[in-house]
User: What shape does this take?
Amino acid sequence: MSYVQHAMGGSPSWRWLVDRVWGFEHAFERARARGRAEDDTRIRIFFVLAAFATAFLSLAVGATRAALSGADGRAGASAAAEGAARADLVDRNGAMLAADLLHYGLYVDPREVWDVDATRRALRAALPAIEAPRLEKALHGDRRTFLIGGLTPEVRARVHDLGLPGLSFEAETRRVYPLGTTAAHLIGFADSGGSGLAGAEYAIDEAVRAGALAHEPQALSIDLRVQAALEDEVVKAARAFQAQGAVGLITKVHTGEILGLVSYPSFDPNQAGRATPDQLLNRVGTQVYEMGSTFKVFTVAMGLDSGAVTLASTFDTSQPVRIGGQVIHDYHAENRIMTVSDAFIHSSNIGTTKLALRAGGPTLTRYFQKFGLFEAAQVELQESAKPILPRQWNDNAVASASFGHAISVSPLALAAGMGAILNGGTYVPLTIRPMKADARPEGPRVVSEATSKAMLQLMRLNVVHGTGGKANAPGMRVGGKTGSAEKVIDGHYARSTLVSSFAAVFPTDGPLEADRYFILILLDEPKGNAESFGLATGGWTAAPAVGRVVDRIGPFLGVARRADAPTGEPKDLAPALMNADER
Assistant: This one.
């Protein structure tokens, strides 16, 4: 073995290279021996060209690796962020909600900066967001320092073109929410390390991470067209009535899918750190309210389904009800004998109280529990608060809860409970994940189909004949119930400070298995204006907004406009329930 071969350990690759070098040298010797100098020259030129080609190829490979690596030798954006990568979030139709996009971090090495003053002026002009103290520290430090992150490719190119020595960039991924404040509380946000912190980003964090590895977007249940219409109307109503907060929620009652969710005021998840606690608060899930007369839907459904009353049952509402030190009266006193239908349509607190007391506390609480009102709403979101319940269910508590006082629940819980009444009678948890169009999840039965049909008709007649008239949308067969709950101020209910809402369902006609949608709009402490003649109740503030939302989203949801002008009176409702023997 030659000395060179021995020095290289005799490896095959090095033996191949050495053999080729000696081969070239022997070729030179043969050329000289034959006296053909031109062959000797050609061979040497070829050898030099091959050497240069090999060197340039090595440089090209090195440059490519450097371009794909950070300054500290780590892999570039795709590899460095692999552990923090998150899949795109899209709506049920594939519209983009959130994505990881390539950005750049800017670094300064003061040892390579030629002119500190010129560099300072150029960077301040190109990147006004840089904090002055941070820039000074970077320019006068003794090592390479991170200056600012989140630079788009366009901004990076602009800074790069300044040609300033000492500046370098490292690729990084950044979570971007292209719609800004739209659906912010449902989408949520993630931190710079790729961990979901709120909303869907937190709720389905594992699925989002797994989706990134599989290059599969993760779909949410919302429909951006529905969301946009709901958000627009909720914000308009909140501003028109100077509400301190507002809620909007749309669900599909058979599946529990959330199609739209609004909490006002909102925030921009791209800058979540700059949002105030009030903006970050998800009023749909983490806030609980005394809901007022929307709870009469639960109470009447309980009375009908338990057999405690029928729609023909009557109550004398001419006098207030006194229970201990509590006096219950009607906001719009009718001072007459009312049927159950009348009490619902005219939103009689007296009639509803007498219904609840006739059914009894154990029956009311049993049904309220089945409606899901005694626990946090079942949904993937962490933002789902537990209710505030009476310490004991005495007659006072039963009476107050029957018309939505003495019990505070989240809008999510209200929606899930309403869905159990409006979908044919089964409780289906809410979800932020889309389902197939014909999906019909199974759930425990809460009320009978007959009760479900009766409540759909009652809610429709309330819009046609009762307090919900301003929620009507032409051809959409809207039903609903107003809610105007007095807020507790310093331990007492304040009549002028309200939580005003409207809970709606559409379309109310058709078979029970047909698609149907629930809508809730709630305004916290609205103030009456000229349009509402100074009134701040749900029928004047929230109901008109619901009607406009239905009018806008009906076509998106495939609900055909069809004239239905019910002329029947409440007594014509649900003959089977009307004529049943009272128990």
About this structure: The radius of gyration is 35 Å. Residues 227-579 form a domain with the Beta-lactamase fold (CATH 3.40.710.10). The first strand starts at residue 89 and ends at 90.
